[in-house]
Amino acid sequence: MSRERLFCYVMKVEPDKQMYLQVTYYGRDKTIYMDGKKFDRNFDILIDGTVIAHQKLEGKLSESLIDICYEIPVALTDGKEKVEVKFSSSEGKAAGYGIRIIN
To answer: Starting at the edge strand that comes first in sequence, how are the strands of the sheet with 4-12 ordered?
Structure first.
């Protein structure tokens, strides 16, 4: 049985506006090897338990940091001041990034 690996943040949103999750990645992020194990950069992004994106990093984007914006469905922020943003990967997968919510 594979284990879920995750970390999450509680972040502020504006309930009456379209919101986006901006994630910063290093453009060359790809499979890493640690302690003799392989970890693909392959993960889901969830807002309050709902998957809004699946991301796979293959190291083909840039030599610098890049920002990718993911639209957060309005139904997930309607009437809320905060949401839980979760990054989830399965056994043998990994992710690393910086995030913020914008409108």
So the answer is: 4-12, 82-90, 41-47, 50-57
CA dist 66 and 100 (Å) reads 13
| Length of the chain, in residues | 103
What pTM did the predictor assign? Answer: 0.78
pLDDT digits (tens, 9 = 90+) for 15-28: 989 999 998 887 66
- Output the DSSP codes for the chain: -PPEEEEEEEEE--TTS-EEEEEEEETT---EEETTEEEBEEEEEEETTEEEEEEEE-S-S-SSEEEEEEEEPGGGTTT-SEEEEEEEEETTB----EEEEE-
- 51 touches 44 (CB < 8 A): yes
